[in-house]
Amino acid sequence: MKYVLRYVKPHIPTMVFGFSIKFTGTILDLMIPYILSYIIDEVTPKNDISLVIRWGLVMALCAALVLLCNVWANRVASAVSRDTIETLRHDLFYKISYLSSSQVDAFTIPSLVTRMTTDTYHLHRTLNMIQRMGVRAPILMLGGVVVTMMIDPYLSGILCFLIPFMTIVVVRISKKSIPMFTKAQQSADDMIRVVRENATGIRVIKALSRTSHEMERYDAVNSQLNTDETRANVTMAASSPLINLLLNTGLVAVILVGAWRVSTGNMKPGAIVAFLTYFTIILNAVMAVSRLITMTSKAIASAGRVEEVLTTPADMEIRTPDAAPDAGNGPKPPHIAFDHVSFSYNKRIKNLDDIHFTLEHGQSLGIIGPTGAGKSTLVQLLLRLYDVDCGTISINGRDITTFPLKELRQKFGVVFQNDVLFKESLLQNIDMGRNLPLSQIDEAVSVAQAAGFIAESGGYEKDIAVKGVNLSGGQKQRVLISRALAGHPEILILDDSSSALDYKTDAAFRSALEASFSGTTTIIIAQRVSSILHCDKILVLEDGIPLGLGTHEELLKTCSAYGEIYEIQMGGGNV
User: Among 235, 345, 458, 471, which has the minimal tally of Cβ within 10 Å of its Cβ?
Assistant: First the structure.
């Protein structure tokens, strides 16, 4: 919570100004019942209508000033809460953008979405309400007590007797409800996760007739969220009827005692009217404080979740590079080198074990193996989306852990297995904000065999729908390849990027790639032998273990697993 409060500090002068206006309006609000009491007890007996009108105008002026001050202060409060949460959301989004893949896995995407939206919304509402009622309600409550003591100490004693009981109710219920709101937010994470899964996999769900099953899954998480929120809200809401009971009991006592004191001549009727008005004001103020505490309870739970992300330390340390070797002495280091690399996602079962190979500048590496073999994991380690458990990965003889992440990733052009197209134009999807020359984009589109369908669809200004649903699978892959090539990367990674291309287009793409990007080191992950048999080296993986490394011809002689794949796909063997 303390970390989140740092975002409020720059706005403290503005908040103080708003509090001053709110304070002025609240004091004027407290004066109105007192003036009414004075009119009833002092002015009316004089039978001077002009004096009544004069004091009535004073009351009207006070009411107008109260309205003006409240509107002004509320506008200031809205501006402060808006600007504070805007900065907080910006920093939270920035932090999420630079979390490592392992940290994102730990938080989960649904939880991060909830923290960015629901949790920051709770903070926005609470900060706004604190500025609106955080000054007004306590002043109305305490000021009302002070004024009632001035009017009649005996009757105010009833109120002073009730205050400790109301405080105990609010404090105990708040302590109990905060953990409940935290649990409710965690249930909201689960519901968003299920909604995202259903939205992403809607075609699979419909194709397999699993709609009823998914509805049951959603109903389960939705019911759990409803149960958790209901439990938290019911617990917190218990404060309102209890405080109402105490204050209304006190109000009855005030009427009885006040009537007795008026009948004995110890109190004037106007004082009773003012006292009842102040008691109602105090009742509303206490209820406002109760609502404020309810919102604060939610905000405290949300602030802890937001702070957890903001204060997460970077787990990918940028190490100081060793002294660079003399370029004139010794052989030139390989472009890419994996030196006995092992990695595990859960740190128990190895997903990659003892990966060892080198690639020279301009060479190509094909990676093939069954699903789950660790092919995509290998390139994620090269991009340093995850850190290796043991071994080292180097580029040009320099350990990748010594590169600043931005500098490292600018070396790559990547097409991931399940890559994303954004709801932008074709040009914006290819350029990706890099302000690349149109000549480079044209070249990349031509090599990716995308020029034809782009021209037919209206050119680069064609709008892409969300996730590229208005493109075929092959068209999407060609746009993604164009994006990767457009920046003329030092290293090109194609992760199963030609699976939707027909053999003719795939062959044309490989031929154009070799002709136009011969100096680019290329890593191709594929399921088809035809996509990688031309590569300088081929790595065969199974269950994270390298079964063979060499050229196509070498592997046919030395690696039975590769020979089996080749025979099935290219030699007419039976599956």
Answer: 458
